[in-house]
Amino acid sequence: MSNLRTVILREELQEIRNKLTIGRISTYIVGMIVIGVGVSLMIRSNIGMSSWDTLHYALTHAISFMSMGLANALTASTTMLLTIILYKRWSYVVMIVPIITTALLINLFNLYIFDGVLYTETWHHIAGYIGGLFLLPLGGSLMIVTTLPAGVYDQFMLAVLYKLKSSRLAFIRAIIEVTVVLLAFLIGSIAGIGLGKFGVGTIIFSLMVGVLISMYLTIFERIGIYEHQQND
Question: How much is the pTM?
Answer without folding.
Answer: 0.77
